[in-house]
Amino acid sequence: MDRSPPLAQAERRGHERFAGCRPDRPRGGHRPHRWQGCGRATADRRTRFRTAGGTGNPPDRRRRRPPLCRHCAAGGAGRARAGDRRGQWPTAGQPEPGARPVILLAPSAAAALRVAVEAAYPDEGCGLLIGRREGERILVSRSLASPNLAEDRRHHFEVDPRLRLRLQRELRGGLDDLVGHFHSHPDGPAEPSASDLECAYEPTLCWLIASVAGGRQVALNGFRVAADRRRFEAVPLSIA
To answer: Given 3-state DSSP classes, what are the helix, strand and coil percentages for the chain, each rounded to the nearest 5?
Structure first.
């Protein structure tokens, strides 16, 4: 029996707790596992399970997964039959199955694009498209003209990289983003050329190509780079 003053006993117990040891267990010893201890309580517990018709081992209290239905047990979990859309939740930003791509150009953006390509004639005009994506739909709300930095401006275009960097800083954290670019073909068709395909570095951006004849825009078409990056795919364009 410890006959030291109560204050000394309290200090000693506090030191033992701080040091991580316990008075009722030898220092350096390990605490017995709940079901692997050698005490009488463990033996009595095993006897109780054995006499009750069990194996003598405690019940497995781990959480078990609920049984699968016949559909899931057959490997059909997560897969639906053709035409069956039950259990399929659309993910934000992803197109729904069967959705067709389309470019929706705001009237103000279409007007600014026309002014830019007609002012650049007989050279190629170019610029950037600002908007947002909704699945397969590209909503263009603004078009921004850029100086053409190409050496041969009659047959090639090059957007000013400083304009693009400034635009990306401006759009950072907002709802709109850079969704594409545009350029013109003076006295040529509104179709991608071989040189356009060589410049198709970013397949995520859409292309708008204008045909300008005699200083007047006569056609405007939309395109995107195919998945193999070896060709362009036409995309329906609507001004609305």
So the answer is: 25, 25, 50
88 pLDDT more than 50: no
Is residue 138 a contact partner of residue 102, using CB atoms and an 8 Å limit?
Answer: yes
Give 7-44 pLDDT, tens digit per residue.
555 555 554 444 444 444 445 554 544 444 445 555 55
Torsion on CA atoms 184, 187, 190, 192, rounded to nearest 10: -80
Reported confidence tier of residue 240, pLDDT bands at 50, 70, 90? confident
Tokens 């693009």 -> residue: 164
* pLDDT greater than 80 at residue 133: yes
Could you tell me the CA-to-CA distances from 1 to 4, 5, 16, 25, 72 in Å, in that order? Answer: 9, 12, 17, 17, 66
Identify the DSSP state of 21.
-
The pairing of beta strand 216-225 with beta strand 232-235: antiparallel
Rg (CA), the chain: 36
Fold of the domain spanning 102-239: Cytidine Deaminase; domain 2 (3.40.140)
The residue ranges of every structural domain in the chain are 102-239
